[in-house]
Design a protein that fits this description.
mainly alpha, 323 residues
Length: 323
Amino acid sequence: MLVYFLKRLAGAIPLILIITALTFVIVRLAPGDPTKMFISPNTPPEDREIIRRNLGLDKPLHIQYFIWLKNFILKGDLGYSLVNGRPVLDSILERIPATLILMGASYLLSVIIAFPLGIFSALKPYSFFDYFLTFFSFVGLSMPPFWLALMVIWLFSLKFPIFPPMGMGILVDAPFWDSVVDLTWHLALPAFVLTIRNLAAWTRYIRSSLIEVSGQNYIRTAWSKGLGEYSVLTVHALRNALIPFITVLALSIPEILAGAFIVEQIFAWPGMGRLGMEAVFHRDYTILMGDILISSLLVVFSNIAADILCAYIDPRIRLQGKS
């Protein structure tokens, strides 16, 4: 297992370098001079050139990239914000917990609800319940996150003021459980918006995987032993059906991060997505690059974790990795 992990980790390093290089070039080639965002328009050209030289913006693009990459690898330094002068890494580390809470709640709700719905739908294919879930899945997949976010704010915060429309809502100097309840109350709407799309897709995927696996020979053997329908599907078929589903879970992370950029902005959720949107609006290139880098690392390492989990569930994957 260790050899398999090291191989996957070694394969991820070139991918991260390619992602960071392409992102760095695209961000730096965007129109506009970032120094104009925080200096006076009346600043003399020679002073503006001194500022650009101090920021390293006068160097060729590839030199800027290698300096940025070297500082990150050797020092963990992603530079300083062009807007407020704070270290980029500190700004991102402050926002990561909020994003992980939002993504974790969405993942947990999606898995907890999708598993029983998908299993029951596979037990009763082409029933009324199955057709209802199919309809729900198409509706869930068709709704854009930004539209759904605006609709739930209108319904549950304005029309019926049940949930707060924005913010994270952690109480200051309050008992622990009061802060947890307040956080959960503020988390309800943004987590719901991120959950709907995943729930719709994952329910159908679990159903399809279970139905496909149920046609294998070892499943027919389980049937011939006289086992019940629920036992065959959940005990014998579910483990093999989980292997492609785990891959789907990992591949959903980029989509959830992209959705978080929109949802966090609409709900004023103080996470990495909102930080990235603010960096785009202010042309804060250093913050934007750091945000994209950390997001890329989360995606890459989540895929590695999914591969390792698949290899743990199915030893054949480990054997293929050794060959």
